[in-house]
User: Fold these one by one.
Assistant:
Number 1:
Amino acid sequence: MVQVNNKVFSNFKISSESAIPVYEQIKSELKLQILSGNLKPDEQLIPIREYSKLLQVNPNTIVKVYYQMDIEGFVYSKPGSGYFVRDFKRSLKVEKAELFEKFTDDYIQRILKIGYSLEDVNNYMKKYVKKLRDKKGGKK
């Protein structure tokens, strides 16, 4: 039996307040875990039934996520063994940028819904970046 990194999978929680569909949230989280190196090439993903129980979603949702990630080149399947992280040759820079854009879009949409303006978001982000730089001693 292959050991699965359950810690990576158990830290993720679905946001019921998000406008993003559940399967997209799960897919984005898995991509994040792969792109950040928390899931390594050839590491087994949690089995479909187990992951659906953990997230309390229909197993078909996990099937859809794994299938789409297979098509996108992030994972591959071994019949009878499950899904594994692919050692993909895609540009990490492009994938990370796409993920960053999705997260940023979701954040900004939420902020706008509660009444803040884009100028408010911009001002906050400038303050936040300055705070982070000051905390790290001016390093980027």
Note: Residues 40 and 80 are 20 Å apart (CA to CA).
Number 2:
Amino acid sequence: MDYILNDSQIVFKPYSSKCSVCRYFNRSEFNCIGFQKGIPEIILTGENDHSKPLPDQDNNIVFEVNE
């Protein structure tokens, strides 16, 4: 089986953001269905908790705890 290295975890800061416990976060690809072009840094850094859609967001998906 061939594996492709994915360095997305270097950019993704699991201890600063709530992404890792969000139901919309794809852990294998380090991305979110709410942000097709990439999770904004303001969310990755934890500066914004994403409880409301961002002004330039293309959808209404916000943080929800993955149960």
Note: The CA atoms of residues 24 and 33 lie 6 Å apart.
